[in-house]
Amino acid sequence: MAIAKRVGRNPRSVAQEIVDQEPLSSLSAELEIGGPGFINIRLNDAFIGGAVSELRPLEQVDQPERIVIDYSSPNVAKELHVGHLRSTVIGDALARLFEFVGHTVIRQNHVGDWGTAFGKLIAYIDKEQSAEDLTVQGIEKLYVAANEQFEKDPIFAQIARQEVIKLQQQDSETLDKWNQIVQASLDHVQQIYSMLDISLQLSDVRGESSYNQDLATIVDDLDKAGILEVSDGAKCVFAEGFLRKDGSPLPMIVQKSDGGYLYHTTDLAALKHRSKSLHANRILYLTDARQIHHFQLLFAVGKLVGYISNDVIPEHLVFGSVLDKNSEPFRTRGGNNVLLRELIHEGIDRALEIVRIKSSHLSQDEQEEIARLVAVGAIKYADLSKNRTNDYRFDWDGMLSLDGNTAPYLQYAHARICSIFARADLDLQAHLSHEISLQHVSERALALRLLRFAETLEQSLEERKPHYLCNYLYELTVHFMRFYENCPVLKAENARIRESRLSLSAKTAQILRVGLENLGISLPVRM
Ligand code: ARG
Hints:
The two termini are 52 Å apart. Strand 3, helix 5 (85-100) and strand 4 form a beta-alpha-beta unit. The protein is built from 20 helices and 11 strands. Helix 6 packs across helix 8 and helix 13 packs across helix 14. The strands form 4 sheets. A 4-stranded parallel β-sheet has the order 4-3-8-9, with helices on both faces. The chain has a 3-stranded antiparallel β-sheet with strand order 5-6-7. A two-stranded antiparallel sheet has the order 1-2. By secondary structure, it is of the alpha/beta class. Residues 70, 73-75, 110, 112, 267, 270, 285, 287 line the site of arginine.
């Protein structure tokens, strides 16, 4: 109809001319003109079957970008807790997906490893014990005690402040102790990443401390750009349009009157590094919504000072909170943060109960490994399958259910397909390129689903929302199950149909595997 309008002709006659074209009619069993000039195309089974046979899950982008993803980025000297879950899980899924389609991804773990807290900690460690054999749990306890001491003991407070100054002046003894604290914390962080199959490595850590040497230059850059102002002794930048609640201009303070730098200053240094040294085209940040204003101001000032040129796109990706069953913030009974270490262990225990019943034929070791993959998959999938910007409820029973839009349901379907091949002693890989001919409506429905993988992946990346891909994989699985109920595979009526159905099953397993693995979810071959 749009074409007809443009060429100024009757829509139905234009439609007829299009329908008469040879290449189009070979695609479809039925082409019909409806209403005032719509063309309805019903693709024929041979065309769909051929397209599925040729389906390759990997289509590389035409213009690969360099994408920095700043995710997880916890503050050290504390155990990881549920508040770190979403940034870590969503960031990791996006990193893998962008890499999969051919972009260059540079992971940046912007850990909070600097600040006055370290002065207190070091002073307290000096007083109470040595910095050796520190664990993150120990450090967290010491920090609570150090804070108490700081409040009640002025002499201790004085020492703690001196330690901060010594740290800033790179005093080697103080730096050593700081280093021990950071290393012990990062050991813990990496351990949790490996339990959760998170792809962040120690080499991706580029903490706040690593920008210390650059901060004076940042203030200089702002000065040279003519945007630095001094207000109440503090150096700051006023960006247009940023106002306080009372309507007065909101400053970005980059250096306090005592000479100290701030979170913003470090982030400006990181922005400069990512854009000028890492040559990123795109810089993604994953934090919760509390930091929206921080990043808005950061990007505005980044543009003013010239760190963000026209070919660099910074983007703050926010996400909602994790809630409990009653829609309250997810906490322990005592009101504390739920630790990721404990969360993962609880998940494995719960998954093991299910695996023991469902997979009693497998060895103890195998059951335990499956339970880990199921638990981690369930935790990640429950998060990824919800629209990123919404809150979601953390519910063990729901996320571990073998029915419904859950990781175990998808993992189980995949294992089931693998077992069809194992039972018949056939190679799944070898069936990926076999010819597919569609007989049954549920085969056709499954085939049409398979063909939509690429566009769903694209949509997930375009909006940086993995839930589109999750929902697609779920629907694909529902279609597979329907097909499997209706169409005998190994006992198909003849060899040609059997081969075709094996091939459809192999394709489904392949898309499930590629989709889930690039979300960071592993698949057991047996369950
Ligand atoms: N460490 C910060 C926090 O725990 C998150 C850092 C996010 N990244 C950044 N470049 N500011 O809130």
